[in-house]
Amino acid sequence: MRGTFMKKYLIIAISVSLLAAACGKQAQVQPAQPAPQPQAQTQPTDDMANWKTYTNAKYGFEVRHPMELTIKEDAKGVVFSHSVPYKHHDSCDLKGGAPVLKEVVDFNATLKVFNTDVESAVKATFSFPKDIIENGQFKLSPGFVDEYSSGSLKGYILKIGAEGCGVNTYYFPLNALNTLVVSQRFTAERTELITGYEKVLALPGMINPKDEDKIFNQLLSTFKFTNDETANWKTMNLPESKNVSFNYPSSSFVNVKDKNNIEIINGEEKVDIFYKADDRISTGSLTSSRINIYETVANEYLKQFGVTLPQGRIDGMLAGGEKYRFELMVKGKKEIHEVFYINVVLVDVYTLSANESDFQKIILSFNQ
Q1: Residue 176 pLDDT grade (very low, low, confident, very high; cuts 50, 70, 90)
Q2: What CA–CA distance (Å, rounded) separates 146 from 158?
Q3: Tally of domains within the chain
Q4: Residue whose C-alpha is closest to residue 125's, from 104, 137, 107, 110
Q5: What's the chain's average pLDDT?
């Protein structure tokens, strides 16, 4: 799939070059430049002594930033930016005819915390999610999808760009139910791709690309998530399935009923977990015959509840980490089930009485 995507990437790069020439812009036609690749900072430095602290109660985080940055909150998240007045043609105008810009943006970073697991955050922000992540695992590809860390943040960077224009998107799992997504846009005005870029760099107050990367990494290194309700949760491996673990509230009592059943009891709330690694399922690449076995095993388990997997649902459960949710009425109460696969282990997490939020956090905490 990445091959198909990169073909689109190359077509965009060629289009930019042709349009630049057709419009008579002073753009030097050179090979497409990759998005900036900042080196991660792990500790704040002395030049951050006068930085301010920004706190966002909505998303539950705080971060430090230079006083010169402008901060704007909108639907996309919290935007940290800086610009210098300078009239110029838009170096990233693919169609031509765009109005003359009045400023050069030399810093732009948008932070937003999604109340979802990292794969759901990717699906919400990227048009081709299966190109870069599948079943909770990122598909590393040097220069396209890479691991990335800054301070306490550990995650991945997605680099999309052509002819000095594009965006880096960073995905940082904060816990099972929260993901920090950071987007960093970049343009070509301050690069050798544009004739006369030296004049732009010499403008008073201009942040050069090297310093921009430094500030960006320093800013990220100060990020603190202040709304982590699962920070003190405990972790447990499933008995008989030691490669699969999950998190649960520290105040809960865990009752291992048998080798395939666990109860998590927290006051009046209770979550049950059924899990089983069927002998008919083996590890290895997915084939049509193995997919059929996965589906058969799941449906044999679901038969006791009078339900079966909808047509085609098994593909999403195996490839995209989707979960099959259904509800039953038990003694006049609604029993909620969410069934999914973790590698070769079939898992059903269900409850009659648990808080929906904690129920989802337990489900999303499952990992290998």
Answers
A1: confident
A2: 7
A3: 2
A4: 110
A5: 84
> Which of 158, 190, 225 corresponds to the end of one domain?
225
Record the tokens describing residue 92, joined without a space: 């990233």
DSSP track, 239-252 = TTEEEEEEEE-TT-
Exposure class string for 240-264: b at 16+ Cβ within 10 A, else e:
ebeebebbbbeebeeeeeeebebeb
Q: What is the CATH number of the domain that holds 130?
A: 3.40.1000.10
Which of 175, 200, 225 is the last residue in one of the domains? 225
Residues 85 and 187 in one domain: yes
Looking at residue 20, what is its pLDDT? 37
**Amino acid making up residue 367:** N
pLDDT-above-70 percentage for the chain:
86
CATH of the domain at 275: 3.40.1000
Distance CA 126, CA 337 (A): 29
CA nearest neighbour of 263 among 135, 186, 327, 352: 352
User: Range of 116's domain?
Assistant: 2-225
Whole-number Å distance between alpha carbons of 19 and 22: 5
- Strands 165-175 and 137-138 come out as unpaired
Asked if 141 and 76 count as a contact pair (C-beta separation under 8 A), the reply is: no
Confidence of residue 286 (pLDDT cuts 50, 70, 90): confident
Q: How far is CA 265 from the centre of its chain?
A: 31
